[in-house]
Specification:
The complex is a heterodimer of chains A (about 325) and B (about 120).
Chain A (H helix, E strand, L loop, with lengths): L1 H32 L7 E6 L2 E6 L3 H19 L2 H5 L5 H26 L14 H20 L12 E2 L10 E9 L2 H24 L2 H21 L1 E7 L2 E6 L5 E5 L3 E9 L1 H5 L3 E5 L2 E5 L3 E8 L4 E5 L3 H19 L1
Parallel strand pairs in A: 10-12
Antiparallel strand pairs in A: 1-2, 3-8, 4-5, 5-6, 6-7, 8-11, 9-10, 11-12
Chain B lengths: L1 E4 L7 H14 L12 H8 L3 H14 L2 E4 L3 E4 L2 H7 L1 H13 L4 H13 L1
Antiparallel strand pairs in B: 2-3
Classes of the chains: A alpha+beta (about 325), B mainly alpha (about 120).
């Protein structure tokens, strides 16, 4: 029990407390030198010197956002899974990445002001490269520290309930058809993102630069294709085995009935077990994870697992176990 | 959605497919607003003719259990809730019939006769 408590509390320290401290320190340094830097200050560099300028107050505001809010959201994202008792590589990695990101942004942002102290014109600002290098080194160090303060994670996932083959009368055919879908809120966010990109593309064609319009349109089309490919998957269990196909028909994943060693219903946590959502490859498993929750888990003859999130995975598993039995009988 | 057909049964295949959808609805696994898989997908999975599946969907539409919407396919209608509502009473009746030694086919005939009169 004590190790469990430590995993959660250390993740809070590495992924939330430490990034906030780093960010606050960076902002404090920035505010302290605000009087000594030119107005506007250089905020963007090319290889040969600064090429973007902003008001000095922009720097602490950006530090808070990119060096504070973003890392904390990242660092805190796995806490719920950790409290539920789940452990895994990704859950330990995320707080460490959060701390590394906060450190990188803190050093970079505060450093960009420090190198401009006493300048009359920001155009004379020296190269940002040494600061960037220092930031990267510090970030790797902080990330490694964040990783090491957390205890070792023994991979722990919920037990799978092995399915008994669906009982059928001789000659009867049974199939299971369903969909793997995102939660409505997640889908709404994706659709919203595509809509924003589409509006931006239209606005660029109407009012903006043609080159930018082409790029933005390309991004909008790409987003729409990705959203269409990854938001809904059709899942079919029939005599040939398991087929998972994206709604846009671009992607098709199959497990032949003869390759099914076992089928089971289980629970998955996308972030904790697979580091996110979509089609995930982790050691020992391929997974189509569109949400956390009930999922069908197929063990192949090689021992490799194939997982797909579904409502009612128990029935799907029972049908798959039955057709796998048929396939084995046909082979013998 | 679980679909099962028995080609050796005397009941026509389209009736068995429709029966599978009715069973899923009665069990509450299909709820109003759910979309049925496309007829082509069902036909491919069950290895039956597309028209057989279309006939089954037509039957379900005539019963009011599904609505056909252009471009969206077959959607489970509000009628599904009514069917699910009768589930507890049906289970009780089936249990009583079993206790009296009345088989499900005889019970179904009894219900049909009661509905006709």
């Amino acid at each position: 029990m004590s190790t469990e408590d430590r995993a959660v509390s250390r993740a809070v320290v590495a992924g939330v407390v430490a990034p906030v401290l780093v960010c606050v320190a960076a902002i404090a340094i920035e505010l302290a030198v605000l009087g000594d830097v030119p107005d506007p200050v250089a905020t963007h560099w090319r290889a040969d010197g600064p090429d973007g300028f902003s008001s000095p107050t922009f720097v602490p505001a950006m530090t808070a956002l990119v060096g504070g809010v973003l890392p904390v959201v990242l660092g805190a994202s796995g806490l719920r899974s950790l409290r539920r008792g789940e452990r895994g590589f990704v859950l330990r990695l995320m707080p460490a990445v959060a701390l590394g990101l906060a450190t990188l942004m803190g050093v970079l942002m505060a450093g960009s002001l420090l190198i401009q102290r006493g300048l009359a014109d920001a155009a004379d600002a020296p190269s940002i490269l040494p600061t960037l290098l220092a930031g990267l080194v510090a970030a790797v160090g902080a990330g490694a520290l964040g990783w090491m303060v957390q205890p070792h994670h023994e991979e722990r996932r919920p037990a799978a309930v092995l399915a008994r083959p669906l009982s059928r009368v001789p000659g009867e055919r049974a199939v299971w058809l369903g969909r793997a879908e995102m939660r409505p809120a997640a889908l709404a966010a994706v659709v919203g993102g595509v809509a924003v990109a589409a509006v931006a593309a239209i606005a660029m064609w109407v009012a903006g630069d043609a080159a930018v319009a082409i790029v933005v349109t390309g991004v909008a089309v790409l987003l729409a294709v990705v959203a269409a490919s990854f938001s809904v998957f059709h899942v079919r269990v029939d005599a040939t085995g398991l087929t998972v196909r994206s709604a846009a028909r671009l992607i098709r994943l199959r497990v032949p009935a003869s390759d099914v060693a076992a089928a089971a219903a289980t629970e998955v946590s996308g972030l904790a077990q697979y580091g996110g959502y979509g089609i995930r490859q982790v050691p020992g498993a391929t997974a189509v994870v569109l949400r956390s929750g009930p999922a069908l888990e197929v063990t192949r003859r090689s021992g490799r697992r194939f997982v797909v999130t579904l409502d009612d995975p128990a029935t799907a598993a029972a049908v798959l176990a039955a057709v796998a039995e048929d396939a084995r009988a046909a082979q013998d | 959605m679980l679909l099962r057909i028995d080609p050796d049964s005397s009941a026509p295949l389209y009736d068995q497919i429709a029966g599978s959808v009715r069973r899923e609805t009665a069990a509450g696994r299909l709820v109003p607003g759910d979309r049925l898989p496309s007829a082509r997908e069902v036909a491919a999975a069950l290895d039956v003719n597309l028209h057989t599946v279309l006939k089954a969907y037509q039957l379900l539409r005539d019963e009011g259990l599904v609505e056909m919407r252009r471009g969206r396919g077959a959607i489970v209608s509000a009628r599904a809730d009514a069917l699910a509502e009768l589930r507890a009473e049906a289970a009780a009746l089936a249990g009583r019939a079993r206790a009296l030694g009345v088989g499900p086919d005889a019970l179904a005939a009894l219900l049909k006769a009661a509905d006709d009169s």
